[in-house]
Design goal:
Chain lengths: 117, 104
């Protein structure tokens, strides 16, 4: 999949107003005002922010602020210091304690065995 | 502060501003502005106004380039646009179409 070449990085202090697209891994350390649609692994680092209509990737790790509808083909991992507003849709969503979430979850999951009895 | 890398396969449409170095081997359409250095690698496609301190072009740029320090157009590069920079090198094997203003 998208493991070729070095990662793309939007550095600390950088700002994009517009659209980020394509394929490859992307680390967002700065600010994006707009949509992100990337085939690959996207990280929104602590201190970074994405404000737009949509944030789409194969896999997502969120440690920063996201105000957008978030969609991943695979997993979404939201870490403790993240702040997320919007709809979350992914194959699975992992939420660490301490994250601030105001979101609608759209994810299929299996109930634990003890709840199925 | 940390560098920004627009890797091959990644495209930005819009405005990119940075305090730090920006390296592009992917695609950028719109505007790019940094106080630091810009490297447009071979294979990169930039259709943008570019402003930086040192600007090194090895790929394709369509748009005006403004550099606080210098512009370096390397072999194999193609630049269509006006250059505003006190210092400029254009290597053998580079192509350039536009005006140069060194009166910075």
């Amino acid at each position: 999949m998208a493991t070729r070449g070095p990662d793309a990085v939007l550095g600390v202090g950088s700002k994009v107003r517009g659209r980020v697209s394509g394929s490859g891994n992307l680390q967002i350390l700065g600010t994006v005002e707009g949509d992100v649609s990337v085939r690959g692994h996207v990280t929104v680092a602590e201190g970074a922010s994405v404000q737009g209509t949509s944030l789409e990737a194969d896999q997502l790790v969120i440690e920063g602020g996201v105000d957008a509808d978030v969609q991943a083909e695979g997993d979404i991992h939201i870490l403790a210091n993240a702040a997320v507003r919007g709809r979350l849709r992914g194959a699975s969503i992992r939420l660490d304690e301490g994250a601030s979430i105001s979101a609608e979850f759209d994810v299929a999951f299996d109930l634990p065995a003890e709840l199925l009895a | 502060m940390s560098a920004t890398v627009i890797a091959q396969g990644i495209a930005i449409e819009g405005e990119l501003t940075s305090e730090d170095d920006v390296e592009i081997t992917g695609t950028l359409k719109g505007r790019l502005s940094t106080r630091s250095n810009v490297t447009v690698g071979s294979g990169a496609v930039v259709e943008a106004e570019v402003a930086g301190s040192n600007v090194v072009v090895a790929g394709h740029v369509t748009g005006n380039v403004t550099a606080a320090d210098r512009v370096d157009i390397q072999p194999g590069a193609r630049l269509i646009g006006d250059i505003k920079s006190a210092r400029l090198t254009i290597a053998d094997g580079a192509s350039f179409k536009g005006n140069v203003d060194m009166d910075a």
